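Q: What would this complex look like in 3D?
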Amino acid sequence: MCPHCHSLEFEVAPLSGRGSLYSYAILYHPQHPAFDYPLIAALVDLEEGIRLVSNLSGVETADIEIGMELEVGFDPTENGSAVPVFRPVAVDELGGAS
Amino acid sequence: MSAAGPSFAGKAAIVGIGQTEFSRHAGRTELQLACEAVTAALGDAGLTPSDVDGLVSYTVDPVEETELVRSVGIEEVAFSSRIPYGGGGSMGVLLHAASAVASGAADVVVAYRAIRARSGATRFGGAKVAPSPTASHAGTTAMQWCMPFGVLTPASWMALNSTRYMYQFGVRSEDIGRAVVQLRAYALTNPAAWGYQRPMTLEDHQASRWIAEPCIHLLDCCQETDGSVAVVITSRERAGDLPQLPVAIGAAAGAGLFEQEIASDHYRGDLSVMEGSVALARRLFGSFGFDRDDIDVAMIYDAFSPILLMQLEALGFCGPGEAKDFIAEGNLGPEGSLPCNTNGGLIGEGYIHGLNLVLEGTRQLRGTAVNQIRNARTVLVTASRTGAILTTR
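A: Here is my prediction, written as structure tokens for the whole assembly.
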């Protein structure tokens, strides 16, 4: 139930897939065989105002900065599905010098 | 003792405490551990199992009331309840017990926790990939949104909030380490503690391996512990006839907010502030007649050290972002303005879910603590969103 309007309806809505890094943690231990370590756990604030727990990929741990612009990608997982993970938005996509 | 606040305030008292040894391998079941702690607590109180008519524990505790009753020999249970919210709910047993006693629902209530957080089927710090049978009703719904991303442990859940806290206020790992050094200094002299006679320096803390960077080194984590503790609560009238100095429950409260879970709650707006503790402090220091200045010793849930800093701020002992300076000035030490976790806390003594902090608070007020704080008359015991003020005033 929606806690605000008590509606029981729902719909699937496309999102931009863009957001920014709200927080993160570089995980070392314990290690689960399904993941590669160190594993970057992330809290991503999407443009639409939704926060997701996810992972960062395509970034060195030393380059992680809270507030950095991110975009979604989809990593394959078990049973042929995919999970949304995030990578830094390329500089040229932000309109900067390439 | 103030007569202010809800009608249960000051009407119930802790009259007995008991515990097993704290170890990494108890070699016996949680039920047996609980039986040992409960009978020890009743012995301490000068009571027998037939005096007990109330039981309070936690939704995550594996020991069934029925089994405890059968094993210890309790004749009739009039009142029982369990507290949700995991460790953050650990002080909730005092609110339930005091309310039951003050209302007349029960006369003698035993609060208990038994745990094998090290040798049991699931280590406290281990990876959770599915809800465990004993964790049902434990407040972990959002955990499912963490699991596909390898966020599987209490340390990882709390790290996401802690990193934001450090970023928001410019807190460094060394700042957090200074709190751990103080906890371990207390544990050094506590024979029951894991940290007994195990010195630790800030350099040791910094050199210990990362569990979750940039906020949780290995030495920022509580000790995964096997053991049990129990607390006996009755009316202050009856307490006067019992052998121990009564420790009154002067205030008790809880504050579970919208969108809060045990630890996998990452969706509230500002995660750098522990809003549940802010709400808890508003209640504890609101209408019961206690001020922060009245607190002689604070026992604050420290499953992981960053949340100790965050709670100091949320409870109002210092301003937002000021805990690192408050700690660096030595305020948590025996001569400081707020001696804190004088048994070594969950990091230095062991993790019995937080209820072992209540035992230490009681010892401080009885004057029997290993690291006794002079003239301790009022003690705060808190765990994130539940708390109580114990007093002999």
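A: To summarize the key features: Residues 73 and 90 of chain A are 13 Å apart (CA to CA). The mean pLDDT of chain A is 92.
Q: Very helpful, thank you.
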